[in-house]
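Reviewer comment 2.1 asked that we show a complete input and output for one of the modelled complexes. We chose the pyridoxal-5'-phosphate case, as it is the one discussed in the main text.
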Amino acid sequence: MVVERYHQMGVAKSRIRVLFEYGMAQAAKVGKENVFDFSIGNPSVPAPAAVADTVRELLEMDPIALHGYTPAGGCAEARESIAADLTKRTGTKIRPENIFFTCGAAPAMTSCMQALAVENAEFLLLAPYFSEYPAYAASTGAKCVVVPPDTEHFQVHVDEVEKRITKNTQAIIVNSPNNPSGVIYSVETLKALAEVLTRKSEEIGHPIYIFSDEPYRELTYDGLDAPYIPSIYPNTIICYSYSKILSMPGERIGYVCVPDCCADSEAVYAAIAGAARALGHVCAPSLWQRVVARNTALRPDLKTYDQNRITLYTELTKMGFRCVKPQGAFYMMVAAPDGDSEGFSDRAKELNILAVPCDGFGCPGFVRFSTCVSPEMIQRSLPSFRKLAASYGLNG
Ligand code: PLP
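Response of the prediction step:
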């Protein structure tokens, strides 16, 4: 006998995976150059050369120390380095004891959810939200409550958040820059959200935490920065990842930061460590802890992503599509001209353009295009996009 809930999750393929696999099969049939796969968020820019240089340097280290277990939260070198860097960047004191290394953002978020999932716990998801959040919450027993999207500006409907807060609300997930919208929540949005969360926390008699999921933190354009949320709302727990920032999603490295300003920070940190342990975490990969510790000044190479973002946004808008202008990350949402996102994705697929309907992101009516692709593929795809536009009678 198996647990049916997990069995279902194991056999149900994500929409993204299905399209990605279809793209590979289709490429074998019609040629790779004739398939325009915008389905998956796998970084298309290589990891900076400093990453490989550091790996080579580290391989000269004592192998017993390099490949051995580290403390569960990470080795001293790594926690000290990240804490010092965050202190410098945020202007607030972060201590090594605030940092807990994880195998990326996914286990960071899962451990946070598990740690706060008291009886009848509820987590608020701001649509559009990353489609894996309900899966992260699945083992916690907590209920995910969706806050409908602001389909005009893709900021946050703060009134809608307020309406959904109950005495059981434990946390709200904030992901900015956002997957799938590419939008950065403004300081005004975050202040308005903070005001509601502060007031409602007092009313219900316990803190409502923000889980700030930040795998795209430094992937920002037009000179914009993603605001540092704990400075706006102290009860914020940060989940960070190097998967996208340093183009190494397969290496599995990231961390949780529970700043001292967070209510009950020591207890929260300990519960996250305990939850990680219960989920089978021993330590994050020792080699990669040290790689990121020695490269805190590295930033992603934004050139290609920025160029792709501008090309796709400009060209599709010219054709008459309504696009959400991305400010960060590497995704762009496009409205289905007739409101039917599944139909839009299917019609695009017939032209070998692969993009994911946003229904699974809590935002029906839109389709997500990943812009972490090659600029040449975008150029090659434009005639097919024109056909797609024409099929909807758009005038470009
Ligand atoms: N959160 C968001 C918003 C993501 O887009 C992703 C990956 O695409 C993750 C979390 C998981 O990232 P990681 O590879 O660090 O586990």
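The mean pLDDT is 97. We note this here for comparison with the apo prediction described in Section 3.2.
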